[in-house]
Design a protein that fits this description.
The protein is an alpha/beta fold. It folds into two domains: 3-120 and 250-303, D-Maltodextrin-Binding Protein, domain 2; 123-248 and 317-332, Periplasmic binding protein-like II (D-Maltodextrin-Binding Protein, domain 2, 3-Layer(aba) Sandwich). It has helices at residues 2-19, 34-45, 56-66, 80-88, 98-103, 159-172, 174-186, 196-204, 215-222, 227-235, 264-274, 277-285, 316-320, 322-331; strands spanning 22-27, 48-53, 74-78, 116-128, 151-152, 210-214, 236-239, 249-257, 290-291. Strands 1, 2, 3, 4, 5, 6, 7, 8 and 9 form a nine-stranded mixed β-sheet that branches. Strand 1, helix 2 (34-45) and strand 2 form a beta-alpha-beta unit. The chain starts with a helix and ends with a helix. 45% of the residues are buried. The protein binds fe (iii) ion.
Length: 335
C-alpha cells in the first residue's frame, strides 16, 4: 500500500508541470515594457512568465544559495562582464537552438551557448553640437594631449568602463592599453562623479568638451519629462568611434538557461521568442537600446542611429580581461 501511494505521488509530481505551463525568470533588468513581452509570449504559447527582479548580485547569490532547488529557468542581466561572472559561478547550462544560433550574431553569444545577447548598447563619444574636432575619430584619440582637461567620464570602477578597458586590452595589447588609459586619465576635466547622464550634463554645461556615455542615456534624456534633461540632449551629439577601422565598443544585455532549470523546454522557447522581430523591437525600445538581431526596426530617439560598425570582439572577452582592466586603471591612477 505504501509503495502504491508513493508511486501515485511520483505520478502526480511528474504531471504537475503539465498542469501549469510556466517559465521562471530572474531578471536584473527592470523595464515596465518588458512586461508586454511576457504577456505576448503567454498569449502565443500559454506559458505563464513569472518574474523575480533584483540586483545582479542579489539574484546571483540567490541562484547559488538555491542551487539544485532553484525555481529559476532563466537569468537575465546586463553587461558582458556580469554574464561572465554568472558563467564563473556555474549558473548556466548550454542551449542547443538553431533559432538562437541563427538570430544572435556570434560575437554576442557565449562561445558554448551558455548565454545569448538580447539587446546591444554602444559606448560612444559625445561633444557639444557642431564642436567635434575634425581629428577626433577613435577611442585612441581620447588619450591625445590636445584633450588635456577636456574629458568627462564616470569612475573607472564602473562595469561599463571596465568592459571598455577590457576590449582595449584585447585590441591593442595590455601595454598599449595601459599607455592609453594613462593618457585618458591625464585628460580628465574633473574627478569622475555620477553616472553617464551626469557626464552629458557636464558636457552641455561646458565643464568638458568631450564625454563618454552609452547612447541609451542620451535617449533617456531626450525622452525625459524634465525640460532641463531635454535641453542637455539637444545641446550634445555623439559619433561612433573607430568607424574607419575595427568599429565601436558594444555591450549587451543577455540571458541564459539556468543549470537546474525545472522548465528547460519552456525556457528555450522563451529565449527564442525574445529574439523574434516582435520581441526584439519592444525589448530594445524599452531602454533605447539596439536590437541584437540585425535589421529589426526600432523607435524613439536612437532609431536614426542604428547603422554603425561594431568591433566584433566577443563580449565574453570583457569578463576574461576584467581583472587586468582593473589592475591597469589602478596602476595609472584612473580615479
Ligand atoms: Fe546603464
Amino acid at each position: 500500500m505504501l509503495r502504491h501511494l508513493s508511486a501515485l505521488g511520483l505520478a502526480l509530481l511528474a504531471a504537475a508541470p503539465a498542469l501549469a505551463q510556466e517559465v521562471n525568470l530572474y531578471s536584473a533588468r527592470h523595464y515596465d515594457s518588458d512586461l508586454r513581452i511576457y504577456e505576448n509570449f503567454t498569449a502565443q504559447t500559454g506559458i505563464r512568465v513569472n518574474v523575480i527582479e533584483g540586483s545582479d548580485q542579489q539574484l546571483l547569490q540567490r541562484l547559488e544559495t538555491e542551487g539544485v532547488n532553484s525555481p529559476a529557468d532563466i537569468f537575465v542581466t546586463v553587461d558582458g562582464g556580469r554574464l561572465y561572472q554568472a558563467v564563473q559561478a556555474g549558473v548556466f547550462q548550454p542551449v542547443d537552438s538553431a533559432i538562437l544560433d541563427d538570430r544572435v550574431p556570434a560575437n554576442f553569444r557565449h562561445p558554448d551557448n551558455l548565454w545569448f545577447g538580447l539587446s546591444a548598447r554602444a559606448r560612444v563619444i559625445f561633444t557639444r553640437k557642431g564642436e567635434r574636432p575634425d581629428w577626433l575619430d577613435d577611442y585612441e584619440d581620447l588619450a591625445d594631449p590636445r584633450l588635456e582637461g577636456e574629458i568627462c567620464i564616470r569612475s573607472s570602477s564602473n562595469i561599463y568602463n571596465i568592459s571598455m578597458m577590457a576590449e582595449m586590452i584585447e585590441v591593442m595589447g595590455a601595454e598599449a592599453a595601459e599607455a592609453w588609459a594613462q593618457g585618458v586619465a591625464d585628460n580628465l576635466a574633473r574627478r569622475p562623479q555620477g553616472g553617464d547622464r551626469d557626464q552629458l550634463r557636464a558636457l552641455a554645461a561646458g565643464e568638458c568638451s568631450v564625454a563618454v556615455s552609452n547612447t541609451y542615456y542620451w535617449g533617456a534624456l531626450a525622452q525625459s519629462e524634465d525640460p532641463a534633461d531635454r535641453a542637455v540632449a539637444d545641446a550634445v551629439e555623439f559619433f561612433y568611434p573607430n568607424q574607419s577601422n575595427r568599429g565601436a565598443h558594444v555591450n549587451i544585455s543577455g540571458a541564459g538557461v539556468t543549470r537546474y532549470a525545472p522548465n528547460r523546454e519552456n525556457a528555450i522557447r522563451f529565449l527564442e521568442y525574445l529574439v523574434s522581430d516582435e520581441a526584439q523591437s519592444i525589448f530594445a525600445d524599452s531602454n533605447n537600446e539596439f536590437p541584437i538581431v540585425p535589421g529589426v526596426v526600432i523607435h524613439g530617439p536612437v532609431a536614426p542611429f542604428t547603422e554603425f560598425r561594431n568591433s566584433g570582439v566577443n563580449v565574453s572577452v570583457y569578463g576574461l580581461n576584467a581583472a587586468e582592466a582593473t589592475d591597469i586603471f589602478d596602476r595609472v591612477g584612473f580615479p
